Amino acid sequence: MQQPAASSPAPVDFEVEPEHYRHWKVAYEGPVARVTMEVDPEGGLREGYELKLNSYDLGVDIELADIVRRMRFEHPEVRVAVLRSGIDRVFCAGANINMLGQSSHAWKVNFCKFTNETRCELEDAAGSSQQAYIAACNGTTAGGGYELALACEEIYLQDDGNSAVSLPEVPLLGVLPGTGGLTRLVDKRKVRRDRADVFSTTAEGIRGNKAKQWGLVDDVFPRSRFDEKIAERAQAMAERMAAQVGKGSRVGVRLPRLTPEVEGRNRSYRHVTLTVDDQSRTASLTIAGPTADDVAILRKGGDAAHAAGAELWALRAYRELDDALLHLRVNNPTVGLVLVRTTGDAQTVLDHDAALVAARDHWFVREVLLHMGRVLRRMDNTSRSFFALGDAGTAFAGNLLELALASDRFYLLDDPDHVVHVGLSDLNEGALPMAHGPTRLQTHLYGEPDKLDGLVGNRALLEPEDADEAGLVTVRLDEIDWEDDVRIAIEERVSLSPDALTGMEQNLRFAGPETPESKIYARLSAWQNWIFIRPNATGPEGALTLYGRPERPSFDWQRV
Amino acid sequence: MSSVDLNSKIPNNVGLADDPKLQRALEKWLPNYLEWWHDMGPTDFEDKPVFLRTAISVERGGWANYDYVKMPDYRWGIFLAPNEGEPTIKCGDDAGTPAWLDVPGEHRNALRRIIVTQADTEPASVEQQRLLGHIAPSLYDLRNLFQVNVEEGRHLWAMVYLLHKYFGRDGRDEADELLQRRSGDADKPRILGAFNQPCDHWLSFFAFTMFTDRDGKYQLAALAESGFDPLARSTQFMLTEEAHHLFVGDTGIQRIIKRSAELQALDPNGDVRAQGGIDFELIQRTINYWYTYSLDLFGGEISSNASSFFASGLKGRFHEHRFEDHRAIEGEYRLPVVEGGKLVEKDVALRNAMNEVLRDAYVADCERVIARWNKTLETAGSPTRLSLPSRRFHRHQGIYAGHAFDPQGNLISAEEYEANRSRWLLVPEDNEYLLSIMKPCYEPGKFANWIAPPTKGIEGRPVEFEYVKLHD
Predict the structure, then answer these.
(1) What would the pLDDT profile of B239-278 be if each residue is shown by its tens digit?
(2) Is the dihedral of CA B41, B43, B45, B49 positive or negative?
(3) Domain spans of chain B?
(4) Residue range A436-448: average pLDDT?
(5) What is the DSSP letter of B352?
């Protein structure tokens, strides 16, 4: 059986443009966008499965992620996006089971992580960008299909005696609805846990008024009036969203392809380079900070930033970083440790951030900040070790300091001949929160509130010793020790069990409270990933393995 | 209605008199059923005595008691075919082990779905046929229509009994919903496609009973192999009645063919329509239309549901006892699939092809009837021959849906399909023509011009017997 493993020869391309969508159609009509899912069964990213009944794979989801992102940047006039299916009586059947069945564990995990990130991005659009998604479930809404609906602000189901919402993963496949389904059921929609239990174990799902009574959907409409009712709801939602938006027209900003130079596994973007060393199982990820010119643009205000559009450093560099992280995850599975560097001038980064924050009343600048936040959260959720290396020429300040705080360790050179400065900007203090709520700085100093208080509001550049004193640095090394100590730390790190490291890092990175979003990754995904490797799901007699095959699954009844 | 009334009104062999829970459920459901019958059944003939067959027991001959009955007074009974020996699971992983006398929790949802889907077809066909009485070609045919209607009603009862008896509150809810869906309704359609197609005239009625009820026969036969014993015994009994429905359709079209051949010979130009009859092209289009919609009812050619139903012992093959290997865990089934714009042969696991295996039995059965019809044509001296289209043609379910095929089963372009549609399938003008020639013929022994009389009457009565008393 073919294994579309992450090491599969054709690397996955995460960049796509609307004119090349295979599975979605988007129509824009003023404040309302119509997003229609019509998956091409023959359009799977890998061989060996057909995407029937609007089931999806990574390729389908890459297009959805692109739609959600472009909606925010290219179509800021949109207040409500109606998500529906182009196939009669089928909304979406969820992730393609045959695809999951034939995939390697790593592929499944990366697929689920990406789809979760896409749904979080879609869900967040209502509150952050006043772009609300409405799920118009004009047919069977099963599994990942219902989870997609759950990520929307409102869910409407066609009441035709047949169309049901369902989460059949447990009873049918022996796995979880792992794209936020269980979490959003009880945490977001506040469905009673006993009912959620019944619902999640009933393969055929629940339809009609009962679905409404249980809070699984917001309303049900008869087939003949479905379109009309959805249009009404979309109108009402558009008005509600518009009331939260300032006056004035918004002109979208096009997001062109990034077109990096690609050489083997290495990718060179304008501001970001990703260099992979297969031998040592490490990669170098380097981000070039903003220049004085970039600061000058921002200082002219939001309109100038808007005019710079996709070329604005803060947007361009973070789009590049995002793409690099995705390539790292999916196309470079054996890289265990990423060495993060940020080059440039620390004071310029702080100036840049101050100018960016000053212009944040402009919708575009706000979108840029939201995007930076999402990219950093993608980094938090990446199951690789990150070491930030603050050697000569680096500038871990402001937004770039977030990369050090997102890393598992921060090594800082203390060399009087090449002073490496560290510094804070407003962006370290609230604009770029982690998935579980607090800032990276708060999380980093969770147990040292005094140190946190000492840092907050401080906009001065810190010399290495001060940075160390302030609690920002893991290991401060002088120029004599640097090379050896860093080398040894790297070699030690890549010798450890990759599984244990993933688990360890994910537990250490998120000190403090939880949010529904962080629960999806920390609780739901973690359990799902465990279930994915259990024989009851993926063993030779597991339910996922045998789905669609003639044999019936047989379980090991021992509760673990 | 008291429980005593209920027991006398409902002939049964399921111990209704001693089952207060079932009585309570039926007491509530029965008035709704009668209301549904009044709203959606052959309402305009409610007060007319019809020479009907009623099943009153499972004893030999008990299923066929003939008398004049007004349809709302028909005694819809609940019967399970008696078991011979200890029942066993007939197929799947547990073949040979004792059958389930109660619903196993593991299979509860799947069984409920199977039963609801089957049950939904029964009232649907009554709804589809509710106005046909007004254009009946004879009293004999009118009676047959009503016999089919009341028995579809009884089959609904049989399924509702299972839902009430074995599926608790969910089952009662489902039983209620069976009376709420409506054939062809945009908002509350019946579950399966063919049962939402209009059936406005008698050619469609005969085609429906010939092809669509024949699907019913095969579905019932597959469920008669179920490891859930009450379902198996219930459907076994239904099969005895279903045979009559197929007879109505099979002989109905056969009589039209016979008459059309006569009219063809009669007309100087061999023009059947000029003589007010139904031409063979139109008959062929009707076959193409209803046969293919009925093929859809078997479900997907490659189906994990079919596999799981078989593996779990919920649904077997037609005449499962004639097979040697009841597990069917090994073995493959070869069928043509569309890949990259071409038809290629593909092997799929036998269990996943169980819908197709059942469809094979159905197709073979239909072929036998077509051969008989062609025999009729041959005897009448007509050069025309009728045929079944390919099972890939005009499909809305399964692997061929979404692709265009001609009636021979060749993959063609969507444009070619559209260009030939009116030659291959029923079009609105066909309906107009058929409705123009279908005028009621209510005189005993008389038949409409477009259909030949049957060779014999019902239960030894002559053809000219007054099968429905339209006048006091």
Answers:
(1) 988 899 999 999 999 999 999 999 999 999 999 999 999 9
(2) positive
(3) 3-437
(4) 97
(5) G
pLDDT at residue A9, rounded to an integer? 58
Give chain A positions within 8 Å (CB) of B329: 550-551
- Give the Cα separation of B54 and B74 in Å (integer): 7
Preferred mutation among A90, A549, A554 to probe B, highest tally of B CBs within 10 A = A549
Using CA atoms, how far residue A86 sits from A19, A37, B364, in Å, is: 18, 6, 37
Closest CA to A82 of A122, A124, A52: A122
Residue A8 is classified by DSSP as: -
DSSP helix/strand/coil, A203? coil
pLDDT of residue B328: 94
First-to-last CA distance in chain A? 30
Question: CB distance B186–A224 less than 8 Å?
Answer: yes
Q: Say which of B186, B328, B349 has its CB closest to residue A549.
A: B349
Neighbours of B407 (CB within 10 A): 21
Q: Is A213 at the interface with chain B, CB within 8 A?
A: no
* Distance between CA atoms of residues A94 and B239, nearest Å: 39
- Taking alpha carbons only, the member of B360, B365, B373 closest to residue B317 is B360
The topology (CATH level 3) of B3-437 is: Ribonucleotide Reductase, subunit A (1.10.620)
Q: What per-residue confidence (pLDDT) applies to A55?
A: 96
For residue A419, give the DSSP letter.
P
Q: What are phi and psi of A436, to 5 degrees?
A: -90, 10
Cβ–Cβ contact B109 with A under 8 A: yes
Model pLDDT, residue A161: 82
Asked whether B188 and B181 are in contact (CB, 8 A), the reply is yes
How far off is chain A from B121, nearest CA to CA, in Å?
14
Contacts of A551 in chain B (CB under 8 A): 311, 329
For B135, the enclosing helix (H) or strand (E) is none
At how many degrees (to 10) do helices B354-379 and B304-311 cross? 100
The rounded distance, in Å, linking the Cα atoms of B92 and B418 is 43
Q: d(Cα A288, Cα A341) in Å, to the nearest integer?
A: 8
Q: Is the dihedral of CA A401, A403, A409, A414 positive or negative?
A: negative
Which tens digit of pLDDT belongs to each residue from B360-407?
999 999 999 999 999 999 999 999 999 999 999 999 999 999 899 999
CB A425 within 8 A of CB A349: yes
Comparing C-alpha atoms, which of A505, A518, A406 is closest to residue A120?
A518
Q: Do the Cβ atoms of B307 and A222 come within 8 Å?
A: no
CB atoms B186 and A222 under 8 Å: yes
**B311 min Cα distance to partner chain A (Å):** 7
Q: Cβ separation of B93 and A552 shorter than 8 Å?
A: yes
Alpha-carbon span A112 to A105, nearest angstrom: 11
The residue extents of the domains of chain A are 18-243, 262-508
CB contact under 8 A, B304 and A551: no
Specify the pairing of strand A206-207 against strand A266-268: unpaired
CATH for A262-508 is: 3.90.226.10
Cβ–Cβ below 8 Å for B177 and A224: no
Q: What is the ipTM of this complex?
A: 0.77
CATH 3.90.550.60, applies to A18-243: no
Nearest by CB to residue A223, choosing from B110, B187, B191, is B187
How confident is the model at residue A448, as a pLDDT?
95
Q: What is the pLDDT of residue A3?
A: 42
CB atoms within 10 A of CB A479: 14
Residue type, B285: R
pLDDT tens-digit map of A2-28: 444 444 558 899 999 999 999 999 999
| A15–chain B nearest CA distance, Å | 26
* B-chain residues near A228 (CB < 8 A): none
Q: How many other β-carbons are positioned within 10 Å of the β-carbon of residue A214? A: 18
Kindly state whether A171 is in contact with chain B, defined as any CB-CB distance less than 8 angstroms: yes
